[in-house]
């Protein structure tokens, strides 16, 4: 049972997932810093408020709606997605293309039927 558990943990998918979570957490902190220290000051210059959380808020009856908070999270998501795409996905795709170009496709040989037909014909000629 322990061996099976160890094999499960050492599978590439589990290790890759663990690395992705750690890197994703660190990457999220970097993007949060960019949003807090670069995007929010730009927003403050445009809207006169330090971030979008107080933009577009309204109340209906006793319900408070915070559209700005949704916009803030949406912007963070877009920045993280764009950074992951341009800094991770695009370079990895380029690297994979280079690797694929370096590996030539194996030359197609005769099929099994062709080989069996050749053997049959060879046996008949004897």
Please, could you describe this protein's structure?
The chain is mainly alpha-helical and 126 residues long. A hairpin with a 2-residue loop joins strand 1 and strand 2. The protein is elongated, with a radius of gyration of 29 Å. It is built from four helices and two strands, in the order ααββαα. The longest helix is centred in the N-terminal third of the chain and has 36 residues. Helix 2 packs across helix 3. The chain has a two-stranded antiparallel sheet with strand order 1-2.
Topology:
Blueprint: H1 2-10, H2 12-47, E1 57-60, E2 63-66, H3 67-102, H4 112-125
Antiparallel strand pairs: 1-2
Task: Produce a short descriptive summary.
With 126 residues, the protein is mainly alpha-helical. It has helices spanning 2-10, 12-47, 67-102, 112-125; strands at residues 57-60, 63-66. Strands 1-2 form a two-stranded antiparallel ribbon.
């Amino acid at each position: 049972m322990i061996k099976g558990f160890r094999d499960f943990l050492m599978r590439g998918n589990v290790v890759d997932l663990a690395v992705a979570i750690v890197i994703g957490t660190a990457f999220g902190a970097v993007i949060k810093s960019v949003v807090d220290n670069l995007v929010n000051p730009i927003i403050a210059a445009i809207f006169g408020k330090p971030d979008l959380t107080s933009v577009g808020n309204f109340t209906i009856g006793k319900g408070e709606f915070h559209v700005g908070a949704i916009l803030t999270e949406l912007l963070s998501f877009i920045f993280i997605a764009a950074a992951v795409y341009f800094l991770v996905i695009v370079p990895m795709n380029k690297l994979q293309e280079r690797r694929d170009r370096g590996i030539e496709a194996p030359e197609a040989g005769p099929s099994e039927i062709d080989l069996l037909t050749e053997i049959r014909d060879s046996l008949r000629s004897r």
